[in-house]
Request: fold
Amino acid sequence: MNDPDTRTRILLAAGPIFASKGFRSATVREICDQAQVNVASINYYFGDKQKLYNETVIMAREMRVQQVPQPNWDENTPSEEKLHNFVELVLTRLVAMETEPWQVRLLVREVLNPTEASRTLIKEYFRPFFDLLLSIIDEIVGGRLPDYKRTQIGFSIFGQCLYYRFTAELTAMMVSDEELPNFTRSQLSDHISQFSLAAINSLRAEHSTAID
Reply:
C-alpha cells in the first residue's frame, strides 16, 4: 500500500482544494475523491488532515521555487543588480497582476492566516530568503546598518512588492488606460529597486558614523 505515487497524487489533489477553501473548510473526503483514493489513505500516508496540510504547504513552496528559481550570481555581480533581480524574483513568484497558480494562492493564504505550517515555512523558506535580501542591503551600504534599520528596509521592500500582489485589481482601476502599460512586472521591478536603492543610500548617509 505504501505507494509514493499515491502519496504524491493526494498532495497534488489537496493543494488546489486547500488553496481555494483553506484548511478548515476543505474536507478529507473531497480531497480523497479528487485523488481517487479511500479516506483511510490520509491517515496511512500522513497521519491526519493537519499533517497533510503541512506537507501540502511545503510542496507548494518547493514547487514555486522550482518554477521560479533564484538567479545565479557570481562574485562580480553588482549589488544594485542583485537588488533588482531580487525584487523581480519576488514579483514573479507572487505573479503580480496575473492569474495565480494554486501554489501561490496557498502560500499567500498561509501568510494571511498562519497555521502551524508557518513554523516550517518561516524556518526553511521565508527567513533564509529575507536574510538574502539583508545581505544585499549590506553590500549596497558597504557595511551594516543597525539591525532594526536593516529589518525595516527589508520589510519596506517586500511591502512594495506585496502592494501590487494584493491590490492588482484596485491598481488597474486607479490608473488610466494610458498608464496601465507602465505597470508590467519588469517596470515595477525597475521602480521598486530604484526607489529602494535611493532610500538605502539616503539611510547610509544618515548612519555613516555607525557604519564606519
In short: The chain has a mean pLDDT of 90.
